[in-house]
Amino acid sequence: MxxxxxxxxxxxxxxxxxxxxxxxxxxxxxxxGLLQKYYVRLDEPDSYGGVYVWDSPESMQAFRASDLxxxxxxxxxxxxxxxxxxxxxxxxxxx
Length: 95
Fold this sequence. Notes:
This is ABM domain-containing protein. The chain has 95 residues and is α+β, with helices and mostly antiparallel strands. It is built from 4 helices and 4 strands; from the N terminus they run E-H-E-E-H-H-H-E.
């Protein structure tokens, strides 16, 4: 499995950001290889993120090249380039 963490700053109010995320939920549910996605609020003002759990790096790369991934900055009206981290999951605690 593979983990991707995206941190972004948005000019949207939290309520509007959540509304847009919920509207886009079916599109994310349909992504091949995306096992789970967590929507998170960070400690800094106007800062949010997504924690993606992928079945493989190839699935993540396919998503990153997709129109859906490219639409994220506009959909959430981000104010600066997002910070992106990618890592292999070595093992999981629970099944």
